[in-house]
Amino acid sequence: xxxLKLITRDVVSFLRSNSNICMHFGLFxxxxxxxxxxxxxxxxxxxxxxxxxxxxxxxxxxxxxxxLETKSYYYRTTWNSDKxxxxx
Length: 88
Description:
It is a single chain. By secondary structure, the chain is mainly α. It has a domain at 8-51. The chain contains five helices and no strands. It has helices spanning 8-17, 19-25, 33-51, 73-79, 82-87. Helix 1 packs across helix 3. The longest helix is centred in the middle third of the chain and has 19 residues, at 33-51. The protein is elongated and about 70 Å long. The termini are far apart.
């Protein structure tokens, strides 16, 4: 679905038009739209468990203005500006 950029209803149409893919996946019948929706929801939960992906329960936002980079804002903008380097 993601590689072909299809929604679940388009997947059903795609499978109907490509019998070789159905044989490759071993599908004797083409699944309905809701079956694909349920499968995607179920597989996402399994992938999250396998990869140990967790959602944050709370989020902290820092608005102090401090930056995590080693260079200061002044050094990156003023000190290394083109005008200063051309003056040398």
